[in-house]
């Protein structure tokens, strides 16, 4: 009897262990290999079409993933629409009139649903789409960890407080990334995402009119399309040299004091990241390696796994 009780106790312990693993499961690149084997090709095909239609979309989807991960983890919460009883993240200060690409994610989700019904999370689709957009613009690839589930809620207040802003100082940037478990080196590498995409005049006006750590000719060029008042939504490329090519030119711009945002130029302004910026500006392989490693780490921020969250059928609303 004692032996039997011992075996039962051991069995219960094993079951408890596996139960815990189901809740706190780790992400894996092969998570959908059995349940949705064509997932990656479905996402890649749709992103290829989206980027071919509009090159800027690669940057928009990459930014969407970043803004998702920095607010309560990579859980697809940024994709949720507001309703009469629910306030999401889309209209938070850093997102309103700014984040875009939701229709592209909707299209990819519909294609994935056709292939594998109610199997793949919107959070994972966003992670894959961000990677594929970078590759479409000539950037490096990386292995995306999968197995995230979708949040059933969102937090506008967390979006307002957690996302780093274009006016941030270097210390504020380091602190914001550190709060998510990312190092200063990760922060500087991830900032290289600004080698693609565009920014609104409202986000860089103060830098081109009031900051001193900016190339005069560059400031004059940007002022042509960004008046001291008005024109808030006028766009300018974040990377002056190759705005739709994913490369290390962003860092060359910083060395030349041609960073578009105040927060960009803070990375090269007599501070702790100057040497790393110089390294990235002359060594694209090191930048690519650090960027891809940092993207994987960012994608690991507080994912919902196991029995937490859900697999949304429509990325814009909970099931």
UniProtKB/TrEMBL annotation:
Sites annotated Transition state stabilizer: 63
Co-factor(s): Ca(2+); heme b
Record-listed heme b binding positions: 194
One Pfam match: peroxidase
A Gene Ontology biological process term: response to oxidative stress
Keyword annotations of the record: Calcium, Disulfide bond, Glycoprotein, Heme, Hydrogen peroxide, Iron, Metal-binding, Oxidoreductase, Peroxidase, Pyrrolidone carboxylic acid, Signal
Keyword Signal tagged: yes
A molecular function (GO) term: heme binding
Disulfide bridges in this chain: 36-116, 69-74, 122-315, 201-226
Cofactor note: Binds 2 calcium ions per subunit. Binds 1 heme b (iron(II)-protoporphyrin IX) group per subunit.
EC numbers, comma separated: 1.11.1.7
Key word Calcium present: yes
Active-site residues, record numbering mapped to chain: 67
Residues at which substrate binds: 164
Reactions catalysed: 2 a phenolic donor + H2O2 = 2 a phenolic radical donor + 2 H2O
CDD domains: secretory_peroxidase (cd00693)
Domain Plant heme peroxidase family profile: 26-319
Residue positions binding Ca(2+) 2: 195, 239, 242, 247
Signal peptide range: 1-25
InterPro entries for this protein: Haem_peroxidase, Peroxidase_pln, Peroxidases_AS, Peroxidases_heam-ligand_BS, Secretory_peroxidase
Enzyme class label: oxidoreductase
Binding sites annotated in the UniProt record for Ca(2+) 1: 68, 71, 73, 75, 77, 89
Family note: Belongs to the peroxidase family. Ascorbate peroxidase subfamily.
Protein name, entry field: Peroxidase 1
Native source organism of the sequence: Zingiber officinale (Ginger)
């Amino acid at each position: 009897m004692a032996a039997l009780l011992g075996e039962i106790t051991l069995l219960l312990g094993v079951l408890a262990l596996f139960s815990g693993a189901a809740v706190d499961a780790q992400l894996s690149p092969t998570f959908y290999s059995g349940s949705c084997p064509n997932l990656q090709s479905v996402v890649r095909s749709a992103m290829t079409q989206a980027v071919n239609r509009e090159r800027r979309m690669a940057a928009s989807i990459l930014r969407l993933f970043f803004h998702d991960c920095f607010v309560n983890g990579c859980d697809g919460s940024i994709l949720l629409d507001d309703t009469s009883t629910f306030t999401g993240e889309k209209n938070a200060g850093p997102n309103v009139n700014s984040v875009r690409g939701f229709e592209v994610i909707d299209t990819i989700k519909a294609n994935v649903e056709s292939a594998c019904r109610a199997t793949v999370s919107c959070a994972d689709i966003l992670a894959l789409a961000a990677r594929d957009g970078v590759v479409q613009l000539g950037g490096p690839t990386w292995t995306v960890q999968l197995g995230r589930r979708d949040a059933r809620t969102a937090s506008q207040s967390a979006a307002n407080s957690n996302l780093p802003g274009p006016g941030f100082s270097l210390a504020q940037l380091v602190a914001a990334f550190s709060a998510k478990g990312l190092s200063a080196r990760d922060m500087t590498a991830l900032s290289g995402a600004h080698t693609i995409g565009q920014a609104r005049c409202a986000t860089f006006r103060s830098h081109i009119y009031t900051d001193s750590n900016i190339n005069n000719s560059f400031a004059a060029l940007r002022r042509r399309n960004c008046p001291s008042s008005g024109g808030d939504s006028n766009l300018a490329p974040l990377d002056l040299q190759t705005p739709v090519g994913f490369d290390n030119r962003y860092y060359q711009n910083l060395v030349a004091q041609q960073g578009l945002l105040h927060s960009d130029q803070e990375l090269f302004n007599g501070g702790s990241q100057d040497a790393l910026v110089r390294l990235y500006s002359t060594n694209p392989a090191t930048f690519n390696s650090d960027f891809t490693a940092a993207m994987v780490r960012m994608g690991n921020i507080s994912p919902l796994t196991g029995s937490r969250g859900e697999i949304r059928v429509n990325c814009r609303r909970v099931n």
